[in-house]
Amino acid sequence: MKKYLVIGNPIEHSLSPLIHNHWMKKYRLFDSIYEKRKVEEKELKNIIKEIREDKIVGVNVTVPFKKLIIPFLDKLDFTAKKTESVNTLFKVKNKVVGYNTDRKGFALTMRELFPDPNDSMVPTALQGKNIFILGAGGVTSSIIDALQHEGAKIFLSNRTKKKAEELKKKYAEVEVLDWSKRPSTCDIVINTTSIGLTKDEKINIDFSDCSGDKDKLFYDLIYNPKETNFLKEARLRGNNTMNGQRMFLNQAIYAFNLWTDIKPEIDEEVIKLLD
Predict the structure, then answer these.
(1) Strand ordering across the sheet containing 58-61
(2) What whole-number percentage of the chain has pLDDT above 90?
(3) 101 and 255 Cβ atoms separated by less than 8 Å
(4) Contacting residues for 99 by C-beta, under 8 A, at least 6 apart
């Protein structure tokens, strides 16, 4: 049996097994199974050992290990190296390689949200947008990289300001703000933190002056629960909201394709699995 995993801590919220096992069944990969495993940082080395020994074929990496996994890998793909963020592992020619499909998944989601009528592959509607990003964790660099490529202006805030400053060293045009501070104007607010995975967690930043603004998008990378307090408060204010479901599915397409050479489709059956 070919084994695939998603690793993280916490991991209970992950719906990756639902999606990948559905695709494995749909595309008749009956010798394959995808599971989730809660691990500690000290266990990362052993995960790589299992891949090296072919006990595991492929791995997805989630919070908080997207950067911590890097020292144990033999090689990084271009995007993983640039963003210093890894969410997919696969052995190629006896080398365990780290890939970043988050960046591609997010960029594809933005193309779907902000299509250019002349070229749907280039979201020029993001050009010049002011985007406020909350968090500076493993996935944040992927989000910044995709948005800056499209000419958006990025403002960044993190509870630990030092981590945000470290990201600014890589992306010099990013403007770092103290936590709870906000840019004078912003078109999109993106939560990349894990605040919201637990039911009662709230992001204590005041967005009350955004009330009734249907053009302002509040976007949360969390997809389970479907509506975090961050999104609920935005919806009640009358703002546009979106959770991380589509990005989650889009990045999963790239990972599945990497492992199997099959490009799966997002159909109604997949969407229902997440509902």
Answers:
(1) 32-38, 2-8, 58-61, 88-92, 95-99, 75-76
(2) 89
(3) yes
(4) 76, 77, 79, 80, 86, 87, 88, 89, 90, 255, 258
pLDDT of the residue at 126? 87
What tokens appear for 93 in the block?
């020619």
Instruction: Using the structure block, give the residue that is written with the tokens 């990013």.
Output: 174
Active site residue 66: yes
pLDDT digits (tens, 9 = 90+) for 106-141: 999 998 888 776 665 555 578 889 999 999 999 999
Q: Would the pTM of this model clear 0.90, i.e. be above it?
A: yes
Residues 6+ apart with CB under 8 A from 12: 38
For the segment 36-84, what is each residue's pLDDT rounded down to a tens digit? 999 999 999 999 999 999 999 999 999 999 999 999 999 999 999 999 9
Is residue 8 pLDDT above 60, yes or no? yes
Catalytic position from the list 36, 66, 104, 153: 66
Q: Which residue has the tokens 């002011």?
A: 130
b or e along 168-202 (b: 16 or more beta carbons within 10 Å of the residue's beta carbon)? Answer: beebeebebbeeeebbeebbbbbbbbbbbeeeeee
Pairing assessment for the beta strands 88-92 and 95-99 based on DSSP bridges: antiparallel
